[in-house]
Amino acid sequence: xxxxxxxxxxxxxxxxxxxxxxxxxxxxxxxxxxxxxxxxxxxxxxxxxxxxxxxxxxxxxxxxxxxxxxxxxxxxxxxxxxxxxxxxxxxxxxxxxxxxxxxxxxxxxxxxxxxxxxxxxxxxxxxxxxxxxxxxxxxxxxxxxxxxx
Amino acid sequence: xxxxxxxxxxxxxxxxxxxxxxxxxxxxxxxxxxxxxxxxxxxxxxxxxxxxxxxxxxxxxxxxxxxxxxxxxxxxxxxxxxxxxxxxxxxxxxxxxxxxxxxxxxxxxxxxxxxxxxxxxxxxxxxxxxxxxxxxxxxxxxxxxxxxxxxxxxxxxxxxxxxxxxxxxxxxxxxxxxxxxxxxxxxxxxxxxxxxxxxxxxxxxxxxxxxxxxxxxxxxxxxxxxxxxxxxxxxxxxxxxxxxxxxxxxxxxxxxxxxxxxxxxx
Lengths: 149, 266
Known about the structure:
The complex is a heterodimer of chains A (about 150) and B (about 270). By secondary structure, chain A is α+β, with helices and mostly antiparallel strands. Chain A is about 30% helix and about 40% strand. Chain A is built from one helix and nine strands. With about 270 residues, chain B is mainly alpha-helical. Chain B has eleven helices and no strands. Chains A and B meet through strand 2, strand 3, strand 5, strand 8 and strand 9 of A and helix 1, helix 2, helix 6 and helix 9 of B.
């Protein structure tokens, strides 16, 4: 009986831990998105429509991730990257389908924010490379949003 | 766009093999694309207004002639509702371009009814209200934003109940309707730059892969779309070549046929 109670208690504790931890993990990606949107805010006033959806995940320090995105000639795009980790440094860059850097020179990196600007010369697929350059955390949540006008 | 829950999965494009052609703190001027995974797991499906915006810059478009706000057929099959929902949201973007408030309001109601039909009505109600209110105020930017939010909320709600495939059908429905309108506009007033907006081979491959993963949906229209995409692929996957007027016309015929198939009963 004691053994049964013991197992039940341990099981309940584990279950509660999982339930308690899950929102925290999700909240981190949500937080990263809030920061990405914060970076995008000034551009909305300039007429950029920021998409509701976003890319997100986590990366270790020095790790990169690529996402492929269809862009249209005639539009102008900004990609904004953010993380909730204050002391992290992140970067984002855009390459065309030939692997050539395709972004405008006014992209920027400010600690846990970064942004890349592109006015596509052709319609087609582009690669957006996001990177956590440095971070005090083992894994750093990130979120990437984009806007166009 | 791919929902973030999906992004959390380890479908990461393996960048460990990314060969950077330049070293150091400088941003590499080139990367070796061949080293990147060919997967388009992380593709974001553009909203129709992203394409319409680019189209507008090429010259004035008579958006009113593309507005469609009829109530259409009521379906009970969830895949069909999902496809239709995507096309109706796309119709909302067309109506915004045309600044047609009554059409936008009808579309808002229709979106809500379809979302209810697919079991995600609760998450759409506030957006549908906001669409109608913004249309009343002729706040077109507000309507655009709410349509984007609507699609996002529908897809998130579907993903939460593991209906990712239906969520993908919403995107597909929107893309097909957007492509139908794009090709209609470009067919009437052909320009090389207008035709170039169809250069979306990776997006098309993305949809083909997704459709291939839906054998359980025994709905004829899904198979029709699958077959049609095979026909469309060589017309838009032209590399650096131009997409000719005949191809635009052909794609318009195909997408119009599919569009009719989506809104009408078999």
